[in-house]
Design goal:
alpha+beta; Rossmann fold; OB fold (Dihydrolipoamide Acetyltransferase, E2P); 2 domains; six-stranded mixed sheet; five-stranded antiparallel sheet; binds adenosine-5'-triphosphate
């Protein structure tokens, strides 16, 4: 692979004695869409601000295109940041705001106007071009800010919750606009968000942070199917997590005794001995639900507790005899065929290859 566009090497950021980012080592590749996720206060914005030059690392190195950037100020970088409380010029129109950077670069009036209007159109706010930005709604302002950053055609764009002021329908539309533009223009996007659906829908790779640490980086599929640790497995949500002790090892498979039963799980990384603690996850959409006992080693009898519908998908919440909660996700039409009553007794099962053994938990 080519040289990464951005490298963080053992980057730490302290505010007084508080450590906001502990020891971040991460590569960002040219043209990729990288999302940074994690719960509030985990260090996402601090990471982005260090990349924008608004904060400098307390130790470690940040390089862009191989060049050390630790002390390079924001205006000397090609890394515009679009964030929630956007700094638009309130006394200018939407178009003038978008034109501003081009004017600073000496682009002529006619070309500036054409490019600004083009970007406002792409952001679906062309009709507001001549309105003073102070009179626009929060969501409209956010799109002016996006147009203002994109019109400069930067090599990399940093975005901090850029869609947070938009309603749900507009979020979906803007997600499609942004991902298409990102691929068309080949701009590297670093995108901070709270929203898992947003990160998983848009990003090529997702970084999950926890209290200043990088918990996992990978494709959305990797993170969903093979969470590296318990924090990520719980953060991603739609996972069943079971814990116990290793009873036997058969090649890449571990036989694990848990309070809910004995199960076979996949542990290609190995590294566990008999008697050691081990946890595994099975995603909710990889659990099969049936009314007859299945002929597989990984099976549990469970009682249906509740159902949650989102669109055509349903998540079932169930409980095994020992009180462990299971989640099963399926298409609503499949559920209808099963004709389950309330408190129905059912069987859950999953293939050993879909039970993924977790690495050790993150250090406390
Ligand atoms: N200038 C500062 N001085 C002191 N502490 C700070 C400063 N900036 C950030 N922090 C602290 O560092 C931690 C990480 O903050 P950061 O803004 O990176 O979190 P975040 O993951 O973006 O959170 P959120 O999702 O809530 O925006 C927080 O505990 C925050 O209070």
């Amino acid at each position: 692979m080519n040289q990464p566009l951005v490298t963080f090497r053992n980057v730490q950021k302290r505010f007084g004695s508080f450590v906001a980012v502990r020891d971040l080592t991460l590569d960002i590749h040219e043209g990729e869409f990288l999302a940074i996720m994690g719960s509030s206060g985990c260090g996402k914005t601090t990471t982005l601000r260090m990349l924008a030059g608004l904060d400098s690392p307390s130790s470690g190195e940040i390089r862009i295109g191989g060049k050390l950037m630790n002390e390079v100020p924001p205006h000397a970088r090609d890394t515009p940041l679009v964030w929630q409380s956007l700094a638009l010029f309130p006394f200018l129109t939407a178009r003038e705001n978008v034109e501003f950077g081009l004017k600073m670069r000496g682009v002529g009036a006619a070309a500036r106007k054409r490019r600004a209007l083009d970007w406002l159109e792409r952001m679906q706010i062309g009709e507001f071009a001549e309105r003073n930005v102070a009179t626009l709604s929060g969501g409209q302002k956010q799109r002016v800010a996006l147009a203002r950053a994109l019109v400069m055609e930067p090599r990399m764009l940093l975005l901090d919750e850029p869609l947070s002021a938009l309603d749900a329908n507009l979020v979906i539309r803007m997600q499609a606009v942004l991902t298409r533009l990102q691929k068309e223009l080949g701009i590297t996007f670093v995108y901070v968000t709270h929203s898992q659906s947003e990160a998983f829908a848009m990003a090529d790779r997702v970084v999950i942070m926890s209290q200043g640490d990088l918990a996992q980086v990978g494709t959305p599929k990797d993170i969903y199917r093979a969470p590296a640790n318990r924090f990520v497995a719980e953060f991603v949500g739609r996972n069943n997590i079971l814990s116990g002790n290793v009873a036997a090892i058969e090649g890449d498979l571990l036989i694990i005794d848990t309070p809910t039963g004995r199960f076979t799980a996949n542990a290609p990384a190995g590294g566990r001995g008999i008697g050691q603690a081990a946890s595994f996850v099975v995603s909710a959409d990889l659990v099969t639900l049936g009314t007859a006992p299945p002929q597989t080693p990984n099976r549990v009898a469970a009682t249906l507790i509740s159902e949650e519908f989102v669109g055509s998908m349903v998540t079932l919440f169930l409980e095994s005899g020992d009180g462990h909660e299971f989640k099963v996700q399926m298409q609503e039409r499949h559920l209808d065929k099963l004709e389950l009553g309330s408190d129905a007794r059912v069987w859950l099962s999953w293939e050993p290859k879909n039970a993924h053994v977790l690495d050790e938990p993150l250090s406390p």
